[in-house]
Design goal:
alpha/beta; Dihydrofolate Reductase, subunit A; 5-stranded parallel sheet; 26% helix; 21% strand; globular
Length: 199
């Protein structure tokens, strides 16, 4: 199963490594036993999407070697990365020449590298917006937290989706597929797999 993020998400949490051992060391052995019981070997592939190729290859996600990383970029991004020493666990694939990468571009690039059974997208609001717009997001896992953050006038804070508008002309409706609770947090699972646009 690949996990992937946009480069903006990577820059927001530069010291992070997307492996169970890093996220929750106390549960790492349990997770490894679960994967083994499901017939899965090794760690999930970590995918970073960056049209410009502007990523710091010195970050732990690339240098730790704890999981294989795939950078998906454009030909221009590939040129930017081409002259730099690449860690052994990192591969780079180019899709298109310049500009934004579509969700379909990303999926096809991953499939050429490793055929995924499941792909987990944890990108930012623009990448998520692309997946919604192309009807390529099967499920949405949404956490409802009781914290009120607020917003000052003139302060930009992106929402769940940026760069795409669906309502009122083409609203996207999900079907509630599951609810779980942990203390005061709700974990909501919505199905979008059929591409329906009305509730």
């Amino acid at each position: 199963m690949p996990w992937w993020w946009g480069a903006g998400t990577l820059r927001a949490v530069p010291r992070h490594i997307w492996t169970p051992r890093h996220v929750s060391p106390a549960h790492a052995a349990d997770y490894e036993r679960l994967r083994a019981s499901l017939g899965k070997e090794g760690q999930p592939l970590t995918v970073i999407v960056t049209a410009s190729g502007s990523v710091d290859l010195g970050l732990p996600v690339f240098q730790s070697g704890h999981a294989q990383a795939l950078i998906i970029t454009t030909s221009a991004g590939m040129e930017r990365l081409g002259g730099r020493a690449m860690p052994p666990s990192v591969e780079v694939r180019a899709v298109g020449k310049t500009g934004r990468l579509s969700a379909q571009d990303v999926l096809e690039a991953i499939s050429r590298f490793r055929e995924p059974e499941v792909a987990l997208v944890e990108g930012g609001p623009q990448l998520i917006g692309d997946f919604f717009a192309e009807n390529l997001l099967d499920e949405l896992f949404l956490t409802l937290s009781p914290q009120v953050a607020g917003r000052e006038r003139g302060t930009y804070r992106p929402g769940l989706v940026e760069g795409k508008v669906f309502a009122p002309d083409r609203p996207l409706w999900g079907e509630l597929a599951g609810v779980k609770r942990a203390a005061d947090h709700l974990f909501l699972r919505y199905a979008f797999g059929d591409g329906e646009t009305s509730g």
